[in-house]
Each structure stands twice: as structure tokens, then as C-alpha cells.
Amino acid sequence: MSNRASDENSDSGFAGEIAESLFRLRGSGRGPRGPRGLRGPTGQHEPHVHSPHDHAPHIQGFAGFMAIARAVDLLGKSKEPKTVSEIAEEIGVDQPRATRLVQQGVSRGLFSREADSDDARRTLVVLTDHGREFSSRLRSERRAPLDAALANFSAEEKESLARLLKKLADNWPDRSR
Predict the structure, then answer these.
(1) Bridge partners of 125?
(2) Which residues of 17-27 are buried (b: 16+ CB within 10 A; e: fewer)?
(3) Radius of gyration over alpha carbons of the chain, in Å?
(4) Is the pTM of this model over 0.70?
(5) What is the pLDDT of residue 35?
(6) Which of 3, 46, 58, 98 could lock onto 40 through a cystine, CB 3.0 to 4.6 A?
(7) What angle do CA 40, 13, 64 make, to 5 degrees?
(8) What are phi and psi of 129, to 5 degrees?
(9) pLDDT computed for residue 175 by the predictor
(10) 42-76 burial string, b = 16+ CB within 10 Å, else e?
């Protein structure tokens, strides 16, 4: 058993790793049912998905919501602003799609664009306060059911699941290329 598994905070860390891997598989088009095949909570295709919070941005379509959610999640975890190209590469979409996602995020108050102080030709994308709040809500909403599901797993089982899901997510064929 690793030191990490014996650490009192490891359960939370493993749950976070598991949530991240599941999120990557569900939302990247790399999972068993990529964005075009996703169904809403009723089991039916839902063309308009509203956030569970009235003050959260409305984003048309589940695939559109997942793409914005991936970009918000990426920027929420990043210590530094990202270029549109970096966002595209890291969330697995092409440059034109990333440009549209950033435009949608800016129009919904999630992102802002800033000039790069090192290179005036580059524009950096950063989360706004609203974007950080939305990022935080996304993480806690995807963690709550996972925490409940993992309640009866041992630390060793959580560690194994986290390791294997990360490996699965890292090795899933990228269907966007």
C-alpha cells in the first residue's frame, strides 16, 4: 500500500482523480459515447441543457455544454492564462472550435481576453469571477455523486480505480483526429 493510500486525505485525492478521469472520458469525445451520442438525464436526446443553477450560463446542447465545461475546468485548474491554441490542444478540439468556445465563454461572462504582456500579438484567455464560481460548482456537482458511490470502497480500491481510470482515459483513442 502506498503512503498516499494511508494518508487521511487520500480518499479525497483519489475521488478527485477518479472524477477527473470520468469527466475526460465522458466529455472529450474519447469515451464510449462521445458528444454526438450523449443523452440527457431522461435518456432522450436533449437539444437544450440548462445548468441546474438559474444564474449559470445557458449553453445549447449537451455537447456544447460539455465543451464549455472542459474549457472552464481547464482554466479553473490552470495557474496561468491559456491561449486559444493551448485550450484547443488540451481539451481535444480543433482551433476554430476552440475560438468559438472562447467567444461563447466571453459572451456568457465566463472568460475574458487579455493581451499577453510578453507578446502583444497573442491573446490570453482567463476565467472571470463568474467563470471561477461556475468552475467550482461544476467540480462539486460532479464530485458529490462520486463521493457517495465511493463511500464503501477501501482506500486501496479507490487508489486502484483512480490509477486504472486514468490509464484508460490516457489511452482511449482520440476520435477527433
Answers:
(1) 82, 113
(2) bbbbbbbbbbb
(3) 17
(4) no
(5) 36
(6) 46
(7) 25
(8) -60, -40
(9) 52
(10) eeeeeeebebeeeebbebeebbbbbbbbbbbbbbb
